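Suppose you are handed only these lines of text.
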Amino acid sequence: MSERVNVKKKQATPVAEAKAEATLPVLGPVGMLRWAWTQLTSMRTALFLLLLLAVAAVPGSLFPQRPANPSVVTQYIKDHPDYGKLLDSLQLYDVYSSAWFSAIYLLLFISLIGCVVPRAIAHYKAMRSQPPRTPQRLSRLPEYGTLVVPADAGIPASDAIHSAAGLLRKRGYRVEVRDADGALPSLGAERGFLKEVGNLVFHTSLIGVLVSVAAGGLFGYSGQRILVEGDTFVNTLVGYDQFNPGTNFQSSQLQPYSLQLDKFNITFDRESKGKFGQPIDFSAAVTTKETPDAPAKQEILKVNDPVSLGGTSIYLTGNGYAPVVTVRDGAGNIAMQGPVVAKLQGDNYYSSVVIKVPDAKPDQLGFVGFFLPTAFVTDKNVSFSADPELFNPQLTLNSYYGDLGLNSGAPQNVFELDVRNLTPLNARNLAAGGITLAPGSTYTLPDGKGTISFDGVKRYIGVDIHHNPGQVYALVFALLAVAGLIVSLYVNRRRVWVRTGTAADGRTMVEYGLLARGEDHRLAGEAAALRKLFTTEWQLPEDNAADETASDHADAEGTAGSQQTPSRAGDNVAGSVSTPAGPTGPEKDQ
Amino acid sequence: MPFGINETMGQYSELFMLLAAGTYTVAFIAFAWDLAKSSKALRAVDLKAAHAGAPAKVPVAAGVGAGSAEARLDGPAGRAERPSSSTAKANAAGSGSVATADGDMKYAAERRVPARVAVALTTLAVLIHGAGVVTRALGAGRVPWGNMYEFLTTGAFLVAAVFLLSLIRRDLRFLGTFIVGLVIIMMVAASVAFWTPVGHLVPALQSYWLVIHVSIAVLSSALFTLTFAMSALQLVQSHRQKAVAAGGADKLGFMRLVPSALSLENLSYRINAIAFIGWTFTLMFGAIWAEKAWGRFWGWDTKEVWTFVIWVVYAGYLHARATRGWTGTRAAWLSIVGYCCVIFNFTIVNTLFNGLHSYSGL
Ligand code: HEM
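From them, the structure of the protein bound to protoporphyrin IX containing FE can be written out as follows.
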């Protein structure tokens, strides 16, 4: 490998390196900078930073991460008083936006730019220059062969080189013929410039991916909304239950489309024993309007199948039941009527319910309890839900009255009711007991506080709405990167040299050698293919004369098995002048 | 839902899996026997040669299997170690008298009966295993990679199948014990720790991206398995080559069946390059799927983190191969580390970490 690496290294930063080394003793500030730059853009640093990046990404999977799960992080810090805070100060709950993680990937990308730009320039020059001059001893190349064209074939050395050049050109090589009319005409040929181009495209595209992701974070936004059957979402800021704008978000970006949930269907597994009752299909029928005046459109929203609307994508991310209740206050007026979103708590849609009735008079009312789609009560009086479908729906509630605290202005969680300042009305441990309601039934609260009726059950869905303008670009760059990668790994950059000469007896001697730049296990195959091209072109017999010696040698020592090197021992010696083409071979003249 | 569940098919599938595992076990024994027997035979040849006062020859070495057409292509010596050429017989290069197998990994003329038996048995096992995978798919009415049990059984099938396919072109039988051993471990883990009856997919997995993303992931992992085995052997072989070259005794005789460290490195590089492209696609398709399912293409979910880590480690491996001082042993270590990450991602991350991917069917 070392050989290949040397080439690369020299090619990458020959000047900078030489200079850096030369100035080492008197390293001024400029020299220092240059030295640092050379270090940063070296292959070794790139490798080091890559491995560091891999290591640095790991803690993000070991500790809970804030962006994904802020509440879990808070809990984690509480649960680990000894080191929870310390981890926080090390940014281990925000690994991917931490200073150290960012430093690593930014350095890596700076190194990448410092690597790619000079390489691109060097490659551009290489593509415009002629193939390198013909080496003096082709026999020292990794692939080498000779051919002999008989004197009576009428192909002199100069013709042979031209026809070889033609063949190579047809094969996609860039060819330069040298000394065509001299005694030893030769040609240099090169192909596979696309390999380096692929490599450059690959690395550049990685930068593109990074920039696209960053742009998405700047200009995108996302939000959540819960929709009960019949509800309509309008894409304005107030339409969201929760909204996360990107850094550069402007509310004018929101296109006021609307989406109405008409019906939500779930299919449950009724076939397999192990997973009986598991949901196997969610499907939401929705009506959408691109703008308030646009025609309505019926669409189906499913998991893995978002709806695209007004530059956003809408995803089905959750669902549950919403019991419909009517609460009348002490005066007999309807204080609240409609579906209440029940939050999933356990198996089979065992869900919690919180009902706040601020409009009830004279006292505000509050209810806390559970909704069970198929209620079952055990001997020990523990109730659970036996099935996700509505076979025996039941609401069990405790009730309270007093000031719900909604007027204080502090934001409240709709799924929680703070009962500390409320007076209980119904609970298991009170004389009045708890409230248990089946659909269609009504319960009268004690002390003339009013009534509550359970009217029916609807379904609700949770949707995530995303707008990420960087995403398309990220995809394009990722595809470019893969294309570049494949080209870079599978196009081979090769050089071929051919030299011809005329022997004393009039035969035309041909020798050729191949060299690969970088990894190329198919070089031998290419050599064989070229040989075949030449022999066909010049109508030579399969086992051409110049090889006889070689085969003989192979027979003589090849069977011994230690080496497959047919030629004379002398060839091993550096600077040897003999060539397999014989004493009159082209190489003699230098 | 497209298809129903067929429990009978599921039971057939389990029977096939069991039979396959049994057959693999016998194949494993045959591979081990081959190693033991060949190394003994080789040592005997060595001893004879030593008695005759001749330098040790390599019975399965270069030249015997290679046709004369190949020999003709070869040029002068002195360029033997050039890696980019097929003529680079690492054998001859530098390793002195350390006996290793043919660097081209072509089949030698010599017959290794136990190895043939082992390959035949493995082929049989793969056929039975394939039947198991197919019946599982029929039983569940979908692609057979929807949970850990199915990833493992289908993955093991691919590992074995890829190994057999590569045997058509190269004599990699020296990897047999390693690969078949691994396949057995996967099968046992599947049925003991992760057994799941046939069932429907949860909605989050119902997507054609499951077919694309997971199949490429499993295929790349199968390739990484091959290179892991090769890199491990490469480390052993290079240690042995060094020890023997330094005049030490050859304690690891069975390693003569294995090609030289350099040949192993070259071949595993080529396979790793393919697998890396596969993994790049896995990562990309995963991101596209995540965008479809969850509305964001990247969210540093634990599974995403580890997929990324694996990708970066193998990118590091490809870099290492072009970095001075990092080829050979260090690159092999990176390939091994990468594979450990693959294993970790599949086992620990799927079972102990909870992320969005935790529905993988436990
Ligand atoms: C974002 C980080 C990087 C990643 C993920 C990455 C990945 C890769 C991969 C997968 C390859 C092998 C495929 C090919 O030859 O095109 C490669 C090759 C290469 N990379 Fe990078 N690279 C990164 C950064 C860098 C940096 C910073 C440098 C410069 C110092 C660099 C220089 C090279 C060179 C010279 C090759 C060609 C090696 C050869 O000829 O085999 N890369 N890189």
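What can we learn from it? Chain B has one domain: 7-34+111-352. Residues 53-96, 358-362 of chain B have pLDDT under 50 and may be disordered.
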